[in-house]
Design goal:
Helix 1 runs parallel beside helix 8. The protein starts with a helix and ends with a helix. The chain folds into 2 domains: 201 residues, Aldehyde Dehydrogenase, Chain A, domain 1 (3-Layer(aba) Sandwich); 187 residues, Aldehyde Dehydrogenase, Chain A, domain 2. The protein has 16 helices and 20 strands. The radius of gyration is 26 Å and the shape is globular. It is an alpha/beta fold.
Length: 505
């Protein structure tokens, strides 16, 4: 809480100086090798956090050094080599920060590797200029759109997938020809230390720079004028990031979250639905932004679904889930106490259907099903971000969709049903970052599908070409010859109106 207060205080102070540059007085001199094919001699001062000034990080971009396919592939290969060499260290760090089993930790590595592979395969095509047809009035001529790098970007990562959600956008940023400052989460300190130690070993400081620290450090970073800010985290801090970015008119991508509902209709395959829901909620101890947050279930299958999910959790984690090697822990004491308070309230109201145990010494919470009677229940007010799954009975699909529409647009929406008409109705009458039918979480693993939120669940998207375009400016170009210059566009205009209407409409 102290870090959060400090972050707010610094940010408010920053916003009180909207006029004026508020640049720090301390000047840092960047000493770089003479072999760089661009000049850094005139780089201005930077904040003490940035050993290499932002202007120096823009230099490779502004001088065209990062435009080539070869340069971009080299950066991606460097990152791929780092992941290969540091795999064991990554697994150890994720186990230390979040208690992740090796397999779940490996998912993070796989996600980044798949993004790297997709990007390498398609980068030449993504970079290619795209011709645009011209109207008669613009002829003769040629027109095209070309993707250009933005400059130096800031990536602020979260703690729940601290490696993947830092490096995934970094892949897109480098592929688009940018340089990047990376701010990993202080709540995953082992991964933050690993990134701060290893990335400088493979990237020059003017290409990738890592800054570690708490919310106050993030606030200080946001005082700088970046060319794009990519933030993954909660909605409250997302608003602060957007406010800070507005000072410099810096574009932002906000990957947030929200309460992602899962609707289960009576015609669903209950056994398979239960297995997938149990896995999605147990993954990373429920600390996944697209995990099913609550269930909206038709009464006819509610009892069977609850029993099946509880059985799957016992099969996954054994009779004592709190001791299971396949169950992660809650990231820190503050998050554990928040979840424990919600769970204690459910226990006191006799709402627990399955699970309900916890172990404060290891910050573990047993996967838990909780019965709720309405959307006003305390468990239905905020994103849970833990292994607690409320179950609300709804009469039919329309009642479930009405419940979804009554809340802010979620990052993910899940529907379990064979009925294609029900699927279409869901798509036609709701809005969410993404939709997945008859499964959970897996949509984020499809590297070619754009990933992002809408409304309070975020703005902008990435993964694959979408990520490349997020970190690119699509520049329009028109080229016309000298040899034809029609006179009717030039003054004097007398007598030309009829001709212009006839020719151009």
């Amino acid at each position: 809480m102290g870090d959060q207060v400090m972050f707010l205080q610094l940010l408010c102070k920053m916003l009180n100086v909207l006029t004026g540059s508020k640049q720090p007085k301390q000047e840092l001199i960047c000493q770089l090798g003479a072999t760089r094919p661009y000049s850094l001699a005139s780089a201005p001062t930077a904040t003490p956090l940035l050993v290499t000034p932002i202007a120096a990080m823009r230099a490779p971009v502004s001088t065209g050094h990062t435009r080539s396919l070869a340069w971009r592939l080299e950066q991606l290969n460097r990152l791929g080599g780092l992941l290969r060499d540091q795999e064991a260290a990554v697994l150890e760090a994720l186990a230390g920060d979040l208690g992740k089993p090796a397999l779940e930790a490996t998912f993070e590595l796989i996600a980044v590797r798949q993004e790297l592979a997709l990007t390498r395969r398609n980068l030449k095509r993504w970079m290619a200029s795209r011709p645009i047809g011209l109207d008669l009035a613009m002829r003769p001529g040629q027109a095209w759109v070309q993707a250009e790098p933005l400059g130096c970007v800031l990536i602020i990562g979260p703690w729940n997938y601290p490696l993947q959600l830092c490096l995934h956008p970094l892949v897109s940023a480098l592929a688009a020809g940018n340089t990047a400052v990376l701010k990993p989460s202080e709540h995953a300190p082992r991964i933050a230390e690993l990134l701060s130690r290893c990335l400088p070993q493979v990237f020059p400081p003017e290409v990738v720079q890592v800054v570690t620290g708490d919310g106050a450090v993030a606030a200080e970073l946001l005082e700088n004028q970046f060319d794009h800010i990519f933030f993954t985290g909660g909605g409250r801090v997302g608003r602060l990031v957007m406010t800070a970015a507005a000072r410099h008119l810096t574009p932002v991508t906000l990957e947030l979250g929200g309460k992602s509902p899962a609707i289960v209709l009576a015609d669903a395959d209950i056994a398979t639905s239960a297995k997938r829901l149990a896995w999605g909620k147990g993954l990373n101890a429920g600390q996944t932004c697209i995990a099913p947050d609550h269930l909206l279930v038709q009464p006819a299958v509610r009892e069977a679904l609850v029993a099946a999910i509880a059985a799957e959790w016992q099969r996954f984690y054994g009779s004592d889930p709190l001791a299971s090697e396949d169950m992660g822990c809650i990231v820190n004491e503050a998050q554990f106490q928040r979840l424990e308070a919600l769970l204690a309230g459910a226990r006191s109201r006799d709402q627990v259907l399955a699970g309900g145990g916890s172990d404060p010494s290891r910050r573990r919470i047993e996967p838990t099903l909780v019965a709720v009677e309405s959307g006003d229940d305390p468990l239905m007010q905020e994103e849970l971000f833990g292994p607690i799954l409320p179950v609300l009975a709804v009469a039919n699909l329309e009642a479930a969709l009405a419940e979804v529409r009554a809340r802010p647009k979620p990052l993910a929406l899940y529907l379990f049903s064979h009925d294609r008409a029900a699927q279409k109705r869901t798509l036609d009458t709701t809005s969410s970052g993404g939709v997945c039918f008859n499964d959970v979480v897996m949509q984020a693993g499809a590297t070619s599908l754009p990933f992002g939120g809408v409304g309070e669940s975020g703005m902008g998207n990435y993964h694959g070409e979408a990520g490349f375009l997020t970190f690119s400016h699509r520049r329009t170009v028109l080229r016309r010859p000298f040899w034809l210059d029609l006179p009717f566009r030039y003054p004097p205009y007398a007598g030309k109106l009829t001709l212009v209407k006839r020719l151009l409409g």
